[in-house]
Amino acid sequence: MTKVQKSSKTARGTVTCDNTTMHLLKANDFVAESIRKKMADKQILLINITSSAGSGKTTLLQETARRIGGQLNMKILVGDLETERDADRLREVGADALQIVTGGICHLEAQMVWQAMENMDLEGVDLLIVENVGNLVCPASFDLGEDYRVTLIATTEGDDKPKKYPRMFLTSELMLVSKSDLLPYLPFSVEAVVQDARDINPELEVIQVSSTNGENIDKWCRWLLDKVAEKKALANVPAS
C-alpha cells in the first residue's frame, strides 16, 4: 500500500502557530491590559502579592484588613490549587475575599482574575489585592494587570532565594522580608537577601515585617494607602 504524501504547504489564509508558550503569554498580556484599563477607569489600585508557599501572605493580609479595612474599600482575590481556606481566614477578620481555585495550575493568569472580577461588585472599591498561588517561579511570568507586584521572602525559607528565582524579584516593586520575629532563631541574613535582591533589581523597595509582633505592619499599610492616594490623584489630573 502506497503511503499518501502529506502536503507541506500552508493552506491559504492561515497562520502556523509554532510556539505555544509565546502565544499563551501574548494572550495573557492582552487580558492583563484589559484589566489595567478597567482598574484605571475605576481608579482601583491593583496589587499582586506573590511568594513561596507558607511565607505568610494570608496572615499579612489578615493584619492589613484589621488595620486599614475601615479606612478604604478593599477587596481580596485569593488563588490556590484547592480549597477556600485562605479566603475563609480573611472573611473571619471582616475582609471581602473571593477564592480562585485553579484546579492544579501553579499560578494565576489574567483571565482567571478577569473572570473573578466579573463576580465582584467593584463600584467604589479603592484597593484590590490578589494573593497569588504560593510559588516563586510560574507567577513571575504572568502579568495580572497589577499596578505593583509585592513579593514576600520569609526568614524561614533561607536568604538565597532572590538569585535562585531572579525573575520574580526583577518584576517586583516591593519585597517584604516576612516573619522577622524569628530572626534570632534562624541563620537568615537580611543584609544578604536585600543585597542579592537589589543586585537583580536596584530599584526594589524593602520592608522588614512581622505579622506576629506587628513590626512595620503600619509601614506596609501606609505604603498601600499612599499608593491608593497616588493613583486617585493621577487619575484626577486634567489632561494637557
Description of the structure:
The protein is 38% helix and 17% strand. It is an alpha/beta fold and 240 residues long. It is built from 8 helices and 7 strands, in the order αβαβαβαββααβαβα.
Q: Helical percent range?
A: 25-40%
Total number of helices: 8
Beta-strand content bin: 15-25%
What is the CATH-assigned architecture?
Answer: 3-Layer(aba) Sandwich
Shape: globular
Q: Tally the beta strands.
A: 7
Across the major sheet, the strand order is 3-2-4-1-5-6-7
Largest sheet: 7 strands, parallel
| Count of domains | 1
- The CATH homologous superfamily corresponds to P-loop containing nucleotide triphosphate hydrolases
Radius of gyration: 20 Å
Structural class: alpha/beta
Low-pLDDT regions: 1-20
- Please provide the ordered H/E string of secondary-structure elements: HEHEHEHEEHHEHEH
Distance between termini? 75 Å
Q: Quick one: CATH class?
A: Alpha Beta
CATH topology: Rossmann fold
What is the average of the pLDDT values?
91
Topology:
Layout: H1 20-42, E1 45-50, H2 57-68, E2 74-80, H3 85-92, E3 96-101, H4 110-117, E4 127-131, E5 148-154, H5 161-164, H6 166-170, E6 174-178, H7 190-200, E7 205-208, H8 217-235
Parallel strand pairs: 1-4, 1-5, 2-3, 2-4, 5-6, 6-7
